[in-house]
Structure formats: structure tokens, C-alpha cells
Amino acid sequence: MATFVISKRLNDTYKYELTSRKGKTIFTSNSFELRFECEEEIVRLQENLDKLVYMKFRSGNGKFFFRIILDEKQIAISRKYTTQLLLQKGIDEIVKYGHLAEILDFSSGEDIFPDIFEEMEQ
Predict the structure, then answer these.
(1) Which InterPro entries match (predicted)?
(2) Which of 20, 46, 49, 81 has the highest CB neighbour count under 10 A?
């Protein structure tokens, strides 16, 4: 199942990514000033999967990617894919698992496993 991952960019804005069952990024959202805006847009995206428009492109180096449009506004851009088939599989994963995807928040910057590292240092 896919997962939405909220994180912070280097400029202190927030973003979310949809990652596949294998942990690969499918797409990355636009930037948000506040974390809750990410959560709101994820919910909006999940509620409107049938209204999403996927605009497919080919970059100058021959890689394929898509932009996700909702209500005539770009909300995300995909990673680069080597083939059109892989690009389509990314879109299919959104359609199939997007409404089931859980949300993980890694934006706090705190250590996820602090006890493990403390034990290793001792």
C-alpha cells in the first residue's frame, strides 16, 4: 500500500510525497508554509482521486514524468521514470491505493529511533 509522507524542505516549508509499497517516491507536492495545509491537501486529494488530471511529459534527457492537476491547479509533480510503462504504473498506484494510503509525519526533525543510537554509542 502507498503512504503519504510529510516532511520539511531545507527552506522550512512543508511538502508531502506519495511513496509506493516498495518505498519509492511516486510524486512530490508543492510547498506549504504550515504542516496542517499538507494534511488538508492530502485529504482533499484522497477525496477527489477521480477528478485528478495527469499531464504526461518527457524531459530533455528522455525521462518521463507527470504533473497532477486538481481543479485546474498543479498540486504535485512525479519523479522521473525511464519508460512510459513505469510512468503509467505510478499513476495506476495512485488510482488504486491513494484512497487507502496512511499519512506519516516526519516533519518534526526529531530522531525516529533515538534509543537505538544512544545504546550504540555506549
Answers:
(1) YegP-like_sf (IPR036913)
(2) 81
